[in-house]
Fold each of these.
Amino acid sequence: MSMTTTATNTNTSTGTDPWLVRWLPLLAERAGSDPVLELGCAEGRDTATLVDAGLGVVAIELSSKAVERARTLVPNSAQFHCQDFRDPFPLTPAHATVGVVLASLSLHYFEWDATLELVRRIHGVLRPGGVLLCRLNSVNDLHYGGRGPSSSASSATGRDEDCFYLFDGFPKRFFDRAAVERLFADGWHIRHLEEVTIDRYAHPKVAWEAVLEPLPQRP
């Protein structure tokens, strides 16, 4: 597991976010012939990167307008579903399990118990040898609602909900390293965990980037 503690800039030019490129060989290996399950695809930026790399995608997005734009951007090799991904995943019996789940900046909008349940469901849909690749808000994401390390649940009161609050009218959760490790403490191997800076928005955004492998379920 990477033990990087300072934010690393993963972009090659201002305003871009080519973060998936370094993970494509791993994703292709673990996906095999099955589609990638993408949770929260927004307008299809990451979906397009996956499809361009030869991967099929089953993508879920709550916003109908974003789904329309994603279908225009990626007209082939991807299935888009407009739904809450806390509902059952739209997988067919032929692909009831997958080798890759992608969740970029989409798992940090829920109360702690709901987030844990979602992580358990992701574990259940990944076949042995699969991977979850995700990005999560960092407490150091000061431009977009983070309040710094002193606000983190592990260093303040110990209550996870202290890092879950409204920002610009939307509920958002912010993680320090300890909170990420707690989230994936049951049944996961943390292959990689790194705090990164994303240069995609009006201001730099700080997030945790994680690659996780499901461990066998205990009897």
Amino acid sequence: MQLGTPTFSDEEKMNSGIYKIVNTVNGKAYIGSAINFQRRWDLHLSLLRRNMHHNIKLQRSWNKYGETAFAFSVIDRAPADLNLVAVEQKWLDSEAPFYNIARTAGSQLGVKLSDETKRKMSAVRFGKTPSAETRAKMSSWQIGKTVSEETRRKISETKRANGAGKGQVAWNKGIPHTDETRAKMSAWHQASRPRLAA
């Protein structure tokens, strides 16, 4: 089925598994996994049409050959509770698709974003404030997590390499705080101050 005119059946819309995007002009392909083929298709198409796809090789080919040169197909159906990443990896290993920059399923290693892509992504996010629910989720992800000694050492080395420490000007120096922020900071300091036993 062509990307420009997808005709997913009701069964395909909700099915999960492995899919392939093929350039019908040169036969080069991209392989990925999806829990919902319809949603994944919508995401690919939206990004490609706006010239914002994370895969620069696929985006450049799309720009060169046009939307009608590409076809989307389901190549392996698998239940959502199965390890789709493992299934995808088998396909990546056997097919070695040209457009897949990251050779490890579920990884972005090896994927390099162009300056133009970074600029567009930044423009999309600019001015957006996470909701209270999103901030709570982000905070909960860090609860109970500990940083290994190796990670601490690397952070320390990076800070020293960047000139952090003695003589460095604080990033927020000169930025005025609102009355609300000052009140919150004061309350936090009061609550964290050690108290003497009566």
Amino acid sequence: MTSQIQVPPGASRSGGQDLRWMLTRLVEEVPGVLSVAVVSADGLPLLSSEPPGDPAGSGRRRRSLTGPLGAAADLATVVSGLGSLTNGAAALMDGGQVRQTLVAMAEGSLLVMSISDGSLLGVYTDPEADMGVVTYHMALFVGRAGHLLTPELRAELRQATPRPR
């Protein structure tokens, strides 16, 4: 599976390149991962992958969401909203910090995991993906990304992210 990883054009080449490399590995090396988004604590997309049109050569195209910025931005929007919803629910229930969220659907799963700085990692998978393997690799990404997402890099990624008109 080949995905197009999107780092905004004006983003830093050191931290941004490291995050791009890590995201590329997550998408291309973890079976069943279709699309990934990293969203800032304030809900802005920082980094994302475009989902492939035909998952694993199945002969069928996935219905793609087409919001103002495309499928990658749609995933980032859903991840941000889900993060807010689960954090609100945790606060109401005195449940402490949300570590991860899973939404299992007939045609795939959405997993969201917190990164140390308040950012979120969202992964959309095909329905046959092994959730244990996916969450293991997400946890590795989160552990490494937390060190790379400095305030300077987040600011650069936010500034370079296209905005809807």
Amino acid sequence: MTSPTSPAGPAGAGRACPPPRPPDTRRPPAFSYPEVGATAPAEGLPSAGAAAPSKGLPSGYAHLRHRTFVGRGRDVFDAAAAAVTTWRMHRESGARVHAEAERAAPGARLRVAVGVGRLEYAVPCEVVWAAYGGTRTGFAYGTLEGHPESGEESFVVTLDPDGSVWFTVTAFSRPARWYTRAAGPVVPVLQRWYARRLGCAVRRLAKNR
């Protein structure tokens, strides 16, 4: 009887089975900073009307806190919260978002990009925390390996008892690449400019709900 693995066996039967593929040892990018979750307050989200989380941001980083008045009323809050957590805020500001999820959720990874085609420049992030509440909604993402900065940034919409709606950006960061280190004081200026731009985007989206 002819062995099925011999050259005289059925067509193709004499071909040696390919060796099993080695396991993929590549690990996904990790957070590029140790203080993951530091933008979250000790309890819940920032209290209504608060410009910053209740616990301090880690030392050794540049800190950013910026508030924008969005408008008044429940409808404005709901529209602003949806704009922030579904990436519309970023897209309205001129950035493109390639995200794993349609709205912010812990563990969701995304790339925030500017430019087009071969000139597109995208930076990797992962959502650290997200919270959805009746008067406070927001999330934070942290930088992953490969990002030119190291740190974390949160985006929170609050509805005050008097009906006023605020959007707050809180961040801590430091350079992670030679070119961001070389840019020196220019980077914080650009970050503050972008925080203002995001605030304007949220206000515009809430107004045109």
